[in-house]
Amino acid sequence: MDQVENFPNFSSSMNNSSRNSTFGHSGSKPVSYGSKGADSGALSMSQKEISDEDARLVYVDDPERTNERFEFSGNSIRTSKYSIITFLPRNLFEQFHRVAYIYFLIIAILNQLPQLAVFGRGVSILPLAFVLFVTAVKDAFEDWRRHKSDKVENNRIASVMVDGQFQGKKWKDVKVGEIVKIAANETIPCDIVLLSTSDPTGVAYVQTTNLDGESNLKTRYAKQETQAKVPEKERFIGLIKCEKPNRNIYGFQGNMEVDGKRLSLGSSNIVLRGCELKNTNWAVGVVVYCGHETKAMLNNSGAPSKRSQLETHMNLEIIMLSVFLVALCSVTSVCAAIWLKSHKNELDLMPYYRKLDFSEGEMESYQYYGWGLEILFTFLKSVIVFQVMIPISLYISMELVRVGQAYFMIRDSRMYDAATNSRFQCRALNINEDLGQIKYVFSDKTGTLTENKMEFQCASIWGVDYSSTEASLEHGHQAECSAQVDGKVLKPKMKVKVNQKLLQLSKNSFRNVEGKQIYDFFLALAACNTIVPLVVDTSDPTVKLIDYQGESPDEQALAYAAAAYGFMLIERTSGHIVIDIHGKRQRFNVLGLHEFDSDRKRMSVILGYTDNSVKLFVKGADTSMLSVIDKSLNAEILRATETHLHSYSSLGLRTLVIGMRDLSVSEFDQWHFAFEAASTALLGRAALLRKVASNVENNLCILGATAIEDKLQKGVPESIESLRTAGIKVWVLTGDKQETAISIGYSSKLLTNSTTQIIINSNNRESCRRHLQNALVKSRQPLAASAVPNNFEGFSDAIATPIALIIDGTSLVYILDSELEEELFELASRCSVVLCCRVAPLQKAGIVALVKKRTADMTLAIGDGANDVSMIQMADVGVGISGQEGRQAVMASDFAMGQFRFLVPLLFIHGHWNYQRLGYMIIYNFYRNAIIVLVLFWYVLFTAYTVTTAINEWSSMLYSIIYTAFPTIVVGILDKDLSKRILLKYPQLYGAGQRREAYNKKLFWVTMADTFWQSIVVFFVPLFAYWGSTVDISSIGDLWTLSVVILVNLHLAMDIIRWNWVIHAVIWGSIVATVICVMIIDAIPTFSGYWAIFNTAATGLFWLCLLGILIAALLPRFAVKYIYQYYYPSDIQISREAEKFANQRVIGGNRQIEMYPIPDGPPR
């Protein structure tokens, strides 16, 4: 993530301030991706006065009165979807969202009508019932686990104030308005406003790991007016007026009336459900939100729901099959009408046709419904008979295959992150195959390409560069600093490389002007932060380690750097800090602190010295700090610092500027008055606090700048090179500066010395338009001679002269959501690399949307922080990195993993396999069902179009469930067209998915043509062989059944690449199971065709027909397969042969496999 996190407040006067954030709600209005900030649209909730209609009134320690007017939600939670009563109706309702299920339900209902009954009434319902049952069992098991988890959570015990003393109470029984006491290391049972803590200053430390995954401690405060009250000794009387429940976990707005005073409440005064109390003995608070109204539960929305591109395309083929089904039924019904009209005088006497019923005497009319109704009934009966043309089993087969694929992805050791002990997570099972078709990867930088583990590298102080070129840094010298406190030795937990010259100068302190500036610089690093120093035990009882806990890795790196140079922060409370400065403990009063916000891009702290002097220290991004520096002071130092900043950024380092100024008594009093007024304001508090901060943060004297290294993750350059070799375009979207992004681009191999850079930095729309037009002209020049479609040489030339587009967020403000979008997309599509710098979270989503709207190519977004969530959700596939900045990205993602480099095995191995398997499985299922339908259709043509069926109704039902279902599922999970080694060695093979080689319209129609031929062979070979014989229809029906089952299984076997015992078992086991089932069905006397298979299988003609059918049906397929693979092989087939004969002749020595070029897909 590339944004600095907001900081909590640290000041006794600061307790009134709050962190304010706004959350957009999709659907409320169109999202403007080019927007500069969230405040441009309307005031946030924290900036509006809470009206009585929008407020929640909570009477402290009076739950009856609190819940008297409105019955607020209890604290019992329920994450399960169903109850015993609602399970059946709700689960069926959800399942019938699939249109195919409704289709099969209608078919089953039609078969219940006497006029349309083709199969037995019970048999017609079984396939749909089986699919519904299997899915229901899976859903019931998952929900049972949720019920179990809910029961454990609801029955946990909390300490609640009852009749003047704290008593144990189950979490589910806690109510809004009750006072709760939390002990150290306990979990908060609901959202509470702090009243008092064990710390005299009202500070409580909480860990929000369960809420957002962040392990660093956060600080929360009780109001000083409530801190002194002891609930056990005196009843607490007060009224809290706060906002209604909402999902914003970073914001809270309210006020509290106590002892005649009105106190403002903010996000620093509330502790949320799921947090844990740390380093605080106890905390007491009043419940404001319970159960499903807590912010944690309101944010419990699970993984996003997306549909795979393969399934979307599959629906088009299902529509085609539906049209074909209607055509077959229409032909049958029209032919039946013609036949009825031509034989209307013979119907009473015709054998095997509907006869007059004389059992009850003379009948006046024949049971004949008329020409029109007969056509209608024949059509509907045909739909019932041919229903399996639409494969109901395909849906459940795809679900089972995806579950199997997910299992192997999760278990893949290549994607196991040992550093965090985390495995790959598959959070969305329905888009596995999309991983094999990615064309665009949109990546965050910090924490995604880099480690987000900051290391202090160098500093510029008072115009002097103490950089890593110093010899001491080159040799990696690490300072060993310590402090003596209460007879114990305190050492920083992390060591930092130091510059010996700077370390020596830092010890001089006030001996000279240079020492004074260095003193102020490191004092600013130690004090201007929200770091909480925690003391950690070691094996030596006399030595303790100081662990600096902070919300930002940058802050931690700077605090450890200050400690390494002798400025060790050893204590922090809400009112003061203690810093050990080269062995001398000094205490500073924290008179005020202005938290970081995305508008100012700065934070500041006001320190009171022992001599009553007051100083303001400010740190922030260079773009925001240089505008508030007094340029009339030390202009040369300012210019030198700017030069150093540029050189640091060019090395890929993250930079911050440090400044300070003295505050006079009148200036401080003026600030303090304005700050108090802003903190207690009920209207526009956040805007007023920003204004107060901006007024005091000016005319600063520059102290210097810091440079922090955020190292690339292991394997990032190699991974990006592999992705680009595979034809995937990698775009980096970062909030960092342009120089930093360019430097990372070089180190990650996105940029090379031969890359032509096109940079667009504009401050208005016309400038953007002009820059885009000039860039388009420039982009066409190197590609003009080589951009020949389908030309291999042209492809090589294009790659030899790559172009990189580098654009900043300010330019995107004017480009996105405007007519310039089209020009930007055209330019970007001509570039091999795109770097977007200084972009806001919504702009990241806007860039992804820019590509999705204009191309059919698949997009993947990968990030690690909260500012990547919108981008992750916008892309076709979202991947979250479980890194240093919480789990917001993971919770919003489809897949989650620990390192960027895992993207290569995820896409090249599992993505490729998943796409190839699912694509083949869908085509095969269409073939498998169509062949049985066509056999039934040919039979109808020879039986006076009466829509009777030769295949036993039980065999028809079992065909898609037992006879042929399991082989396709197992092959879809286990078969591998290529090994992992080959797929990783040759990234070009990934292009098969981008070109949609495994599933496309051409393949569909070729398969349907093959199906047509095979159905003709299956039907007509037995028909002519037994023509004129006395064999009954049940016997020949059994022959057709066995022929089709053996044929489709052999068809599948021809395409299997990697055989193993499981595949052998299901292929040949299905054939054996079919024979056994047919024998059992024919051995039941009550069924038609009793003993048919035993009679007909005893003849040689039966086996001769079976063998002839298999040879004749598969011969054309075998011939076409041979010709295609021998004369027109694909990359995959070439690689398969190369792998097969690797040790003999193909991959010998330095020989390489020549791959086809990977062309860009045409725009939609």
UniProtKB/TrEMBL annotation:
Residues 890-1130 form the P-type ATPase C-terminal domain. This is Phospholipid-transporting ATPase. SUPFAM superfamilies: Calcium ATPase, transduction domain A, Calcium ATPase, transmembrane domain M, HAD-like, Metal cation-transporting ATPase, ATP-binding domain N. Residues 1-48 are annotated as: Disordered. The lineage of its organism: Eukaryota, Viridiplantae, Streptophyta, Embryophyta, Tracheophyta. Its EC number is 7.6.2.1. Residues 58-124 form the P-type ATPase N-terminal domain. It is found in: Endomembrane system; Membrane. ATP binds at D444, K445, T446, E555, F596, K619, R654, T734, G735, D736, R838, K844, N867, D868. It catalyses: ATP + H2O + phospholipidSide 1 = ADP + phosphate + phospholipidSide 2. Keywords: ATP-binding, Magnesium, Membrane, Metal-binding, Nucleotide-binding, Translocase, Transmembrane, Transmembrane helix. Coiled coil: none annotated. NCBIfam families: ATPase-Plipid, ATPase_P-type. Gene3D superfamilies: Calcium-transporting ATPase, cytoplasmic domain N, Calcium-transporting ATPase, cytoplasmic transduction domain A, HAD superfamily/HAD-like. Belongs to the cation transport ATPase (P-type) (TC 3.A.3) family. Type IV subfamily. Its cofactor is Mg(2+). The keyword Transmembrane helix applies. One of its GO terms (molecular function) is ATPase-coupled intramembrane lipid transporter activity. The chain crosses the membrane at residues 99-117, 123-141, 316-340, 375-396, 926-945, 957-974, 1003-1027, 1033-1054, 1061-1084, 1090-1115. Residues 1-23 have a biased composition (Low complexity). The active site is at D444 (4-aspartylphosphate intermediate). It is a multi-pass membrane protein. Its main location: membrane. It comes from the Eukaryota.
